[in-house]
């Protein structure tokens, strides 16, 4: 508090000086940063909160507030998510597709990551890049390409759930590889060598050491591929074959032009809750599994960085 | 097999390991008899760890053989080799308890469950880990983790144990304790230890024999005392313990002794393998240099001036600038009646002929720092 002492003699100007020094005081709290951060968080949450609020609207409007109710979830006999067969089908299809995608992408991506770790020869560098290409390829380009593939060269597959699943697994795989490889780096080579040194044949090195240590990463991968699949609009849209392969984002998009009701908000809210539950579950299990490991940061930070990798 | 009973005889024959155009191990020949505590010592990048990894089977040699009890195992995969490794990073399995870590390898030795439990217990007792069997590695201290790593390897009763800087990550005090314990365990089990370290103290205190490595090859191999007292090269002298390397030229050399020129002074050495005219360094350990009163007469005495006195507890290191400009370190024990030296004191430095070793000059090994001749020192 050296500013106080300095400004005592000139009482009249003390206020101005202290304000200026307070703003430029290097030891002060970063108020401006905190303010900006909070403003951003509020701004980014606002549309979500608004959408959730209208899911509980009593009236039919999606623009003016009309009391509270659970009408759009199940109380309305025809238009609620529970009673509208198209919304229910979309929800069911989205969840089914996400389940298929995560169950295929996670083991496949883990195997790929393990393979990439062993492969040091020619072409491994190129393969590394190609494997991560879907992360930066525009989704639309990818979806159009997939569409052409399934309607021509791989016409026997055709459009529909299988095509949607293959398409989503293809771009989700990059994320899984990224997550698993991140964890492999922290596991290090030496535990593999130690296991081999103690007599474990290669299959046991994977089964008794690597896979148990990869469980947290695989869990994160399940979650991420689930979330990516649920979020996906472009690929699902292009590879859909009809009403029974409509996902929630597709339904919301198409109905937004017709007669939209707060039931769409209710549907979106359900998806949000499902995603959040998946996140919490992954966090809890991850924490339980990595208990006792010497690691930096909280379990949640690790999970977050894993997903960011 | 050597004699059919003692196992653990390791021989390396012309071992070469290259990474692209870098030769990490450059034709090593080595013989380690059963039950020996053998140390590979050297600075980082000298190829000692690569040698160990080749023996363990993690790397494949480009040339040469690795013979264990006379049998070449250079093409045997690591999980089938009868050697075990203790890693610098411990490499414990974080998801398994201490007991499961130690018992990991027993599964591949067709051991019954009861037998496994008994062996794990024994191994725990040997490395003093009783009571911690159910902890996870993350709940143990560094020293305890190192003990688990050791027990995990020893429980398999390998004829040869490879240790890659096992004490490298521990603090100084713990290192000393574990050094003693490692030696005790090695003698008790009579296992061949191949120990890699860059720490000369570790190498000297524990080993039966030490190989000093440099640039992928063995510079000198022998018992610690032999290496310390009669190093074959300036590199070994410099790496093992403190040494003064005084640049000299060989004036005369006959069979045993030699006369050396150091500026305008002349020194006598009792042994010398180099011929006359060679550029050489005279090596003398700081504890063998004597400080005498200024003006003392006799052979191998050179006047100098105390430049610095460093207090090191049980002794002091006195750095003396010789009249020729060379800086010489002298160890003076701190005992009653010792003459206190101070900066600026003129002294006479006595380098006894029997302690002077004449070694070939080596560009890569820095000799004692030399300044312009000190003029303030009055001629003796």
Work out the helicity level of chain B.
10-25%
* SSE topology string of chain A: HHHHHHHHHHHHHH
Note the run of SSEs of chain B as H and E.
EEEHEEEHHHEHEHEEHHEEEEEEEEEEE
Helix content of chain A: over 70%
> Beta-strand level of the residues of chain A, as a percent range?
under 5%
The CATH topology assignment of the largest domain in chain B is Rossmann fold
Q: What is the average per-residue confidence, as pLDDT of chain B, rounded to a whole number?
A: 89
What general outline of chain B do the C-alpha atoms trace? elongated
Radius of gyration of chain A: 26 Å
**CA-based gyration radius of chain B:** 25 Å
Distance between the termini of chain B: 65 Å
Strand residue percentage of chain B: 25-35%
Report the average pLDDT across residues of chain A. Answer: 82
CATH architecture of the largest domain in chain A: Orthogonal Bundle
The CATH topology of the largest domain in chain A comes to MetI-like fold
What does this structure look like?
The complex is a heterodimer of chains A (309) and B (380). Chain A has 309 residues and is mainly alpha-helical. Chain A has 2 domains: 2-55, no CATH class; 76-308, MetI-like fold (Orthogonal Bundle), CATH 1.10.3720. Chain A has helices at 2-7, 14-24, 31-55, 71-75, 85-118, 124-132, 139-151, 161-187, 190-197, 202-231, 234-239, 248-255, 262-289, 299-308. In chain A, helix 5 packs antiparallel against helix 10 (202-231), helix 8 (161-187) packs across helix 10 and helix 9 runs antiparallel to helix 10. The longest helix of chain A is centred in the first third of the chain and has 34 residues, at 85-118. Chain A is globular, with a radius of gyration of 26 Å. In chain B, helix 3 (113-126) crosses helix 4. With 380 residues, chain B is an alpha+beta fold. Chain B has 2 domains: 10-229, Rossmann fold; 242-360, OB fold (Dihydrolipoamide Acetyltransferase, E2P) (Beta Barrel). The model of chain B is unreliable at 373-380 (pLDDT under 50).
């Amino acid at each position: 508090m050296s500013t106080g002492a300095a400004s005592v003699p000139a009482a009249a100007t003390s206020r101005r000086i202290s304000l200026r020094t307070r703003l430029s005081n290097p030891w002060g709290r970063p108020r401006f940063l905190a303010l900006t951060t909070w403003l951003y968080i509020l701004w980014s949450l606002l549309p979500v909160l608004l959408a959730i609020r209208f899911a509980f609207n009593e009236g039919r409007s999606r623009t003016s507030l009309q009391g509270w109710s659970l009408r759009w979830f199940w109380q309305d006999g025809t238009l609620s998510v529970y009673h509208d067969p198209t919304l229910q089908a979309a929800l069911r299809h989205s969840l089914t597709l996400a389940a298929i995608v995560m169950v295929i992408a996670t083991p496949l991506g883990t195997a790929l990551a393990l393979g990439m770790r062993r492969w040091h020869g020619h072409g491994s560098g190129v393969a590394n890049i190609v494997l991560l290409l879907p992360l930066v390829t525009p989704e639309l380009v990818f979806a159009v390409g997939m569409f052409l593939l399934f309607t021509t060269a791989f016409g026997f597959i055709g459009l529909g759930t299988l095509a949607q699943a293959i398409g989503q697994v293809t771009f989700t795989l990059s994320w899984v590889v990224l997550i698993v490889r991140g964890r492999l780096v922290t596991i290090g080579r030496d535990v593999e060598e130690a296991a081999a040194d103690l007599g474990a044949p290669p299959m046991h090195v994977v089964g008794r050491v690597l896979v148990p240590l990869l469980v947290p990463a695989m869990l994160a991968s399940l979650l991420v591929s689930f979330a990516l699949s649920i979020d996906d609009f472009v690929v699902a849209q292009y590879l859909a074959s009809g009403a029974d392969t409509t996902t929630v984002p597709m339904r919301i998009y198409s109905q937004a032009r017709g007669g939209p009701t707060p039931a769409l908000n209710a549907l979106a809210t359900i998806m949000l809750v499902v995603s959040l539950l998946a996140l919490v579950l992954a966090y809890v299990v991850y924490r339980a599994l990595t208990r006792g490991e010497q690691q930096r940061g909280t379990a949640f930070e690790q999970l977050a960085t894993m997903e960011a990798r | 097999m050597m004699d059919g009973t003692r196992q653990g005889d390791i021989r390396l024959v012309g071992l070469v390991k290259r990474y692209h155009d870098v030769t990490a191990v450059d034709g090593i020949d080595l013989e380690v008899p059963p039950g020996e505590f053998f140390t590979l010592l050297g600075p980082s990048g000298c190829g000692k760890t690569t040698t160990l990894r080749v023996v363990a089977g993690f790397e494949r040699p480009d040339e040469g053989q690795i013979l264990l009890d006379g049998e070449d195992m250079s093409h045997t995969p690591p999980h089938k080799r009868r050697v075990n490794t203790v890693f610098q990073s411990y490499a414990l399995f974080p998801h398994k308890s201490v007991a499961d870590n130690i018992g990991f390898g027993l599964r591949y030795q067709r051991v019954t469950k009861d037998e496994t439990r008994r062996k794990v217990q024994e191994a725990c007792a040997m490395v003093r880990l009783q009571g911690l069997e159910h902890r996870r590695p993350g709940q143990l201290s560094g020293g305890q983790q190192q003990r688990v790593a050791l027990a995990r390897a020893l429980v398999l009763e390998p004829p040869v144990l490879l240790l890659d800087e096992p004490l490298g990550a521990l603090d100084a005090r713990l290192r000393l304790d574990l050094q003693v314990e490692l030696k005790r365990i090695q003698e008790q089990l009579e296992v061949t230890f191949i120990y890699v370290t860059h720490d000369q103290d570790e190498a000297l205190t524990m080993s039966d024999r030490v190989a000093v490595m440099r640039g992928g090859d063995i510079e000198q191999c022998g018992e610690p005392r032999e290496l310390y007292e009669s190093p074959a090269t300036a590199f070994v002298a410099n790496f093992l313990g403190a040494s003064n390397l005084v640049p000299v030229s060989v004036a005369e050399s006959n069979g045993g002794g030699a006369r050396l020129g150091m500026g305008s002074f002349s020194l006598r050495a009792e042994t010398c393998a180099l011929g006359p005219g060679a550029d050489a360094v005279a090596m003398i350990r700081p504890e063998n240099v004597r400080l005498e009163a200024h003006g003392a007469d006799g052979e191998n005495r050179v006047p100098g001036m105390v430049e610095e006195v460093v207090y090191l507890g049980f002794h002091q290191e006195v750095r003396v600038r010789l009249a020729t400009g060379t800086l010489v370190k002298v160890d003076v024990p701190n005992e009653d009646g010792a003459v206190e030296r101070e900066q600026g004191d003129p002294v006479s430095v006595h380098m006894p002929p029997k302690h002077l070793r004449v070694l070939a000059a080596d560009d890569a090994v820095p000799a004692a720092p030399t300044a312009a001749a000190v003029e303030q020192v009055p001629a003796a």
